[in-house]
Amino acid sequence: MKLSDCYNFSDFRKLAKKKLPSPIFHYIDGAADDEITYRRNTSAFDDVDLVPNVLRGVENVDLSTTIFGKKLDLPFYLAPTALQRLFHYDGERAVGKAAQKFNTMFGVSALATVSVEEISSMIDTPKMFQFYFHKDRGLNDSCLERAKAAKFDVMALTVDTITGGNRERDLRTGFTSPPKLTLSSLFSFATKPMWGINYLTRGKFELPHLQDYVKEGTSTNTSIGNYFSTMLDQSMNWNDAEKLCSQWGGHFALKGVMSVEDAKRAVDIGCTGIMVSNHGGRQLDGSRSPFDQLAEIVDAVGDKLDVICEGGIHRGTHILKALSIGAKACSGGRLYLYALAAAGQAGVERALDQYRKELERDMKLMGCTKISDLNRDNLKFRNK
Amino acid sequence: MNLKDCHNFNDFRKLAKKKLPSPIFHYIDGGADDEITLKRNTSSFDKCDLIPNVLAGVNKPDLSTTIFGRKIDMPIFLSPTAMQRLYDPEGDKASARAAEKFGTMYGMSTMATTSIEEIANVSSGPKLFQLYIHKDKSLTDDLIERCKRANFDGLCLTVDTIVAGNRERDYKTGFTTPPKLTLKSLIEFGIKPKWVLNYFINRKFELANVKHITDKGTNITKSVIDYVNEQYDPQMNWNDAEYCIKKWNGPFALKGVMSVEDAKKAIDIGCTAIIISNHGGRQLDGSISPFDQLKNISDAVGDKLEIILDGGVRRGTHILKAIAAGAKACSFGKMFLFSLAAGGQAGVERALQNIHDELKRNMLLMGCKNLKELNQSKIIYRK
């Protein structure tokens, strides 16, 4: 199997599984507890049907949308995800360049393995910085200042990781960052020699946004769950978010809002967007899927800030369904991470190109030529 | 595989399966008929979504709740289950000690293999006694008196075993108590020599609470089904339940109530609690699952008595969903029995630690400071 055999999410996933040491694959692939929410994130789309219109003259389709004041050529973007250089040695460099090529937003995680400065010097398309509220206020200030200096367009504060999720696959594989070599993981790493060679020869693995402040930045092996539980400030509240919002002074979003009540408060503290997200099912298993909750949130605050539907997206039609309900855009992590692991920048580009083609095809089949043509009349909910 | 590899229900179950002779494993694991209700008990939780709140500034969530007049440190306790010494030589003692360590309630079955008095000696933690009404009424009076003397906190009367369920796995394995050695089961017991060794070198296996009254307690090899059908009184009615309440004169629950109508009657006869349960899917297959029925019952009687949800609970999030729907606490049987079989007291402690950690983590992720904040506004049922 190779890149040219990858036509959809499952194909990229399969190829990634072949290329990655198993603890790393399962870190991407896994979710919390029994992974009920992880599965629901995608299957929720299946409970809603698209209702197409015919004979509408749809030769030219415009997929562009505007979020956080930036026009994107695609109605979805690459959600910030941690540790990308574990998945491919180019990591954020590959993903950033692919995003630029398709003119969509690139989300950079606080736990990125390439610095905001380097990314900013590399691409001039829209960029989002994802921020964790650490106990160490110096680290928080430094993250904000550096992202501002690097001219990032959006700051997204993650609010659904107040403690680490119970990712049982990581408990079994012993996944840590940087990878720790235990006897069982050693075996898995040894069976993927190319990954090992690249990991050791393509530049030191580091977390440039944290390394001046925490030992976890470079050398100590820590699990992500453990990192969340020990390094992040569990007393984080609305006042803290409001202060960060004004300290940033630009487009500011909360990532991981699921209740209508919280969405309204996000408006009150000055947010210009929210990501309706459950962290890809990786935190609270049994919690609601973004798509199931989308309509209620759009109805409450959709005219006051940009609502992004994040999680579970495997297909162009999933994006069309979310946009029809009223999301301004969608985003996802796994939708490009498997492709990154499968083939670096070329992999991400292939994935993005396929989503673009799917969206174009599906818009035509729906009888729509621009995103604003999509609305709830396009949809039928099976259970309502 | 060993205890430290056990992170969830399935892990404990797998390890228990390795350690137990197959008839005994299947006695715990099985349900009635086609086991539809057994499966639904757990899957019913998946149709209900939790809605978290963010930025709530919750540091240390309070997991405590009060049932049967006792404060317990987390809203999950050990259901009364029969014959625990079949699963571990220490049996009920191991369970009771583990429960006390985590500040939660231990439930003792009439058909326990350790006596009321022995348990009172090893644990001062919250204790619930589960009562079956036998045809021999003096046995009921005797059990209630002994529970009083032994300072048990609550009494529950099981009302869903008027006749034994059709547990087909037990027919196939030939499960009886004490274990009967047929040719087939002999092979199965023979390949778990450690279990056999423990069974024979430890104290004699007996139904410690009823042995002085019924010979079925000790000598005669009986299937549980035969025992239930011969010894329990199928004429039991609301008057008998009321009789027990008066006799006990303390916190009292009916265990196995599933209809709103019966829940209301339970109030009328003076119950302080009900345990919504279908006996872990071991009695009437095709009957409604506790979680599917919880909201209906809670909306009708939740302000008048304590509601305990029993059955299908595997995860911290299951418990949070039940609390949000209106339960005061949950209880589980299979979950801790597998951990008991997997590792004795240490096994039960690990299971309780896991569930405690899950509850705490999930309360933080829900943004809830205490269980009172978990109400029906925090859940949405999907159709």
How would you describe the overall organization of this protein?
The complex is a heterodimer of chains A (384) and B (383). Chain A is of the alpha/beta class and 384 residues long. Chain A has one domain: Aldolase class I (TIM Barrel), CATH 3.20.20.70. Chain A has 15 helices and 12 strands. Chain A has an 8-stranded parallel beta barrel, surrounded by 7 helices. In chain A, helix 4 (92-101) links the parallel strand 4 and strand 5 (106-108). In chain A, helix 12 crosses helix 13 (290-301) and helix 14 crosses helix 15. Chain A is globular and about 60 Å long. The termini of chain A are far apart. Chain B is built from 15 helices and 12 strands. Chain B has 383 residues and is of the alpha/beta class. Chain B is globular. Chain B has one domain (3-381): Aldolase class I (TIM Barrel, Alpha-Beta Barrel). The two termini of chain B are 39 Å apart. An 8-stranded parallel beta barrel of chain B has the order 4-5-6-7-8-9-10-11, surrounded by 7 helices. A two-stranded antiparallel sheet of chain B has the order 1-12. A two-stranded antiparallel ribbon of chain B has the order 2-3. In chain B, helix 13 links the parallel strand 9 and strand 10 (306-310). The interface between A and B is large, with 41 and 34 residues.
Tag the structure with descriptive keywords.
heterodimer, A: 384 residues, alpha/beta, TIM Barrel, eight-stranded parallel β-barrel, 15 helices, globular, B: 383 residues, eight-stranded parallel beta barrel, two-stranded antiparallel sheet, 43% helix, 13% strand
Question: Element order, helices and strands of chain A?
Answer: HHHEEEEHEHEHEHHHHHEHEHEHEHE
Mean pLDDT figure of chain B: 92
- What top-tier CATH class of chain A fits best? Alpha Beta
Tell me the name of the CATH homologous superfamily of chain B: Aldolase class I
Largest interface: A-B, 41 and 34 residues
CATH superfamily of chain A: Aldolase class I
- In total, how many domains does the architecture of chain B comprise? 1
The string of secondary-structure elements of chain B, in order, is HHHEEEEHEHEHEHHHHHEHEHEHEHE
CATH domain topology of chain B: TIM Barrel
Q: Can you count the helices of chain A? A: 15
Give the structural class of chain B: alpha/beta
Low-confidence stretches of chain B: none
Shape of chain A: globular
Structural class of chain A: alpha/beta
Largest sheet of chain B: 8 strands, parallel, barrel
